[in-house]
User: Which sequence fits this backbone?
């Protein structure tokens, strides 16, 4: 097999499968699940716990399956007043753009394999951050097309509001990263992560705390999330731009919102929190102590699984609540799995790895680096995705004039000041650290 | 295949992904159109008038401001990633500060022109100045009768 001919395909497929799997197949259902469960616990409720497959609820995760089936078999209504072409095109455009944004996000150090460097990034583009801004701002088109083509007053008002809000905060979004662009000296996201290094004291959030806050706020406004979700303000506009959408067309808007959020969280962690950098552990250090670090990972994972088993045993012995059907037996299904997993990981960490001669396996350090860095990237992205939900169920909605004034009157001059503050601080701080 | 090829490929896959879902919902769900189902949702009331009514001129102003300021922000990017040592940090800084001053002059002008005031009425609104304050009762009466007359026009 000629590897050179296949290489471009591998270079595309490996990062694509990871990113697509992580964002669309893993984080998207998790976000929808968290939106329900986190909001439930914030409001002192128990959240989704009924939908089950043979008694397995997975804490309410199965609810997502029920949702998808419901949305698929619902009637797909199209209002007579709607412009059919654009009405169908808008959700398609929004979802396509949401998926395309994740192309330039790096999730690991490029790995040397078969004498080539495999970039862990779908498109290793040197214009990284510019690409993200360019593509993500295209979603304004989708939203205004959706609102206008519905032929509904509420949709139209929602679309006008959404577009004016999104373009207003794009100015602040663009300004807030210029400070760290100066500090890193590049627009390539992979280069930026490398420039931040493994020490958290040189990460973007330390170099440019104001820039981080501005970026976070602007990101909330760009994704139309809670303090800024006026475009869909239920009490005024019913549902805003996606009011007339039903069935899977609505689902596409819904999903694209979460994909945007996850990609936004990934961009925040890449720009300001060192992306795939593991705190205090550089790639060379992980490679040197790969056996020790891998054992540590396995042991901590095993301990966590055993703790979960203990809580499951407790749930079986003293059930909090009895359903009176197969759902009561759910802990008994999970207990052997967690016990087996926990003991297996502990055995791997304490028994197998220390007795192994690592020098015989040259690929072992590479795998450990990959695992650890991907875990770090996923954990940071997960935290900021959770943060989006946390804020939504904590803060009330702003008034429209407050949103516009915040964007133009306060965030714009602060963003301009941030450029020079970051420049001065980063020079002093990095000079002092070295 | 370079990076842009990968982006194109990703775009094609994303388009197939969302297109497949659109087609799926079209064929899986029931399809029984009725006049009531096909009418627009206006909180259960019969639809009145066109959706293309009047809306605030402020939205146009926001778009114009966006064009101006976002263009200015874009000009910061090449300056930010420039090789500072190559042209001298002082020259680079003065360059940036001059441009910032131009941006801020525009911003101060916009703020002074009250473009960013989104309140319904400000003290400089002419209608508010011309109207004597003691006329409040009569005005409320007139407003009330007008709002009843026009209530069918307001969604």
Assistant:
């Amino acid at each position: 097999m000629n590897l050179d001919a296949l290489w471009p395909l591998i270079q595309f497929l490996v990062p694509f499968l990871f990113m697509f799997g992580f964002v669309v197949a893993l984080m998207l259902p998790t976000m929808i699940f968290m939106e329900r469960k986190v909001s439930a616990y914030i409001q002192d409720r128990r959240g989704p716990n009924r939908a089950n497959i043979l008694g397995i609820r997975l804490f309410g995760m199965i609810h997502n399956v029920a949702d998808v089936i419901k949305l698929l078999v619902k009637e797909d209504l199209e209002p007579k007043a709607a412009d059919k072409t654009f009405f169908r095109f808008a959700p398609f455009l929004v979802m396509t753009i949401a998926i395309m944004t994740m192309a330039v996000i790096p999730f690991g150090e490029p790995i040397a394999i078969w004498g080539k460097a495999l970039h862990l990034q779908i498109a290793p583009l040197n214009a990284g951050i510019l690409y993200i801004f360019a593509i993500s701002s295209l979603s304004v088109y989708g939203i205004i097309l959706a609102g206008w083509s519905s032929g509904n007053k509420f949709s139209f008002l929602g679309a006008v509001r959404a577009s004016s809000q999104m373009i207003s905060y794009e100015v602040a979004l663009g300004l807030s990263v210029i400070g760290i662009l100066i500090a890193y000296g590049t627009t390539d996201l992979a280069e930026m992560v490398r420039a931040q290094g493994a020490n958290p004291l040189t990460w973007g959030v330390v170099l440019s705390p104001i820039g981080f806050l501005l970026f976070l706020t602007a990101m909330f406004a760009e994704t139309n999330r809670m303090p800024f979700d006026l475009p869909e303000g239920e009490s005024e506009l019913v549902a805003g731009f996606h009011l007339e959408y039903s069935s899977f067309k609505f689902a596409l808007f819904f999903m694209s919102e979460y994909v945007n959020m996850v990609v936004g969280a990934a961009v925040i962690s890449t720009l300001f929190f060192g992306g795939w950098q593991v705190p205090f552990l550089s790639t060379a250090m992980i490679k040197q102590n790969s056996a020790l670090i891998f054992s540590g990972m396995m042991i901590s994972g095993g301990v966590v699984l055993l703790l979960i088993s203990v809580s499951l045993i407790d749930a079986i012995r003293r059930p909090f609540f009895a359903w009176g059907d197969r759902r009561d037996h759910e802990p008994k299904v999970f207990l052997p799995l967690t016990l087996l997993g926990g003991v297996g990981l502990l055995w791997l960490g304490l028994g197998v790895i220390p007795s192994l001669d690592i020098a015989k396996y040259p690929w072992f350090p590479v795998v450990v680096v990959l695992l650890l860095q991907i875990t770090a990237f996923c954990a940071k992205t997960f935290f900021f995705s959770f943060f989006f939900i946390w804020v939504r169920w904590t803060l009330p909605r702003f008034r429209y004039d407050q949103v516009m004034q915040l964007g133009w009157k306060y965030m714009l001059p602060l963003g301009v000041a941030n450029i020079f503050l970051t420049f001065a601080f980063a020079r002093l701080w990095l000079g002092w650290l070295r | 295949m370079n990076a842009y090829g990968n982006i194109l490929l990703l775009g094609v896959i994303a388009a197939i992904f969302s297109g497949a879902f659109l087609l799926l919902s079209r064929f899986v769900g029931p399809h029984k159109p009725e006049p009531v189902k096909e009418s627009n949702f206006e909180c259960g009331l019969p639809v009145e008038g066109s959706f293309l009514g009047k809306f605030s001129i402020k939205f146009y102003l926001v778009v114009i401001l966006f064009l101006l300021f976002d263009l200015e922000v874009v000009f910061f990017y090449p300056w930010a990633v420039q090789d500072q040592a190559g042209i001298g940090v002082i020259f680079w800084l003065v360059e940036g500060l001059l441009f910032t001053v131009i941006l801020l002059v525009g911003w101060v002008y916009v703020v002074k022109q009250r473009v960013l005031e989104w309140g319904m009425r400000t003290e400089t609104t002419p209608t508010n100045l011309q109207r004597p304050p003691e006329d409040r009762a009569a005005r409320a009466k007139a407003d009330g009768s007008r709002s009843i007359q026009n209530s069918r026009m307001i969604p």
